[in-house]
Amino acid sequence: MATEAYPGCRFYVLFEGQAQGVFTEVSGLQVEMDVLEYQEGGNNGFVYRLPGFTKVSNLTLKRGLTTSNEFYRWLADVASGRLKRRHISVVMYDVAGKELMRWNFLNAYPVKWVGPQLRAPDNTAAIETLELAHEGVTLG
């Protein structure tokens, strides 16, 4: 059965179930597993390769700069010891508006905020970046 590839341009980012502005880019949808090698004594023909720890990448969100500074305040709160974790969902839609895929990031908190690059001759949108650590991703 053939399946078609969907465009990655229709998505929303939800913070605890509420849409949070218009994000232009999401990256870090990645899960990686370590591979442990075990060499059995007396057997020189091969090395056992076993699954090890699972690691998840940080989630990186980019959006046009707005008058809200909620992301920076969230990072500042975490930096001052007031850790507030949030559940984040990235939801992808098809061209008709039907939900195709949902990635849920558990107990996320900011670890990096990057403000816009400001250059007088440019007329491009000012973009802010928020990087989030989390405790795992589920599909749903």
UniProtKB/TrEMBL annotation:
List, alphabetically, the InterPro entries matched: CHP02241, Phage_T4_Gp19
Q: Name one GO molecular function term.
A: structural molecule activity
Annotated source species:
Thermogemmatispora tikiterensis
Please identify the protein, giving its name as recorded.
Phage tail protein
